[in-house]
Amino acid sequence: MSLPDKYRVQVIAEPSPEVLKDLFAVELSAHIDPWSIDQIEACFDPCTEVLGLYQKHELLGFAVVRVILDEAELFTIGIKTAFQGQGLGRMLLESALAACVRRGARCCFLEVRESNAPALALYRRCGFTQIGLRARYYRACAGHPAENAITMRWDYACGDNT
Questions:
Q1: Which residues of the chain have pLDDT under 50?
Q2: How far is residue 69 from each of residues 49, 85, 121, measured CA to CA in Å?
């Protein structure tokens, strides 16, 4: 799926205070148990890529992937609530997987909340398969009980996945 002209995905190279504020705003909007600004800032290292999805100058979503040798891990992905359900998550995920492949990854792993049906459907549509379950991986928070994580894997097969 290619990006419509009004959207762009780009690497966010520098965690300036303004960029961190924008990333944190997406994180607060998109997740039940959001990362702190410090956790987001810690993602800016040589093995990790932070990708932002923009409409003009507004950050609508971001993804964080880490590649070590030939394996990648999707640490987080999120789209602001007001923009969910429009295919932007898929665009961002496909861009993140392409970034992993460019860095030499042959596979990508992730964990997702067992109750997150929209994310599970997205990951499956993009070629991820379930490989395991982590009992009570996500802590109870914000009125949500502790929850299992489904672990998933995506394999790069000559470009067939993206």
A1: 159, 161-162
A2: 14, 33, 28
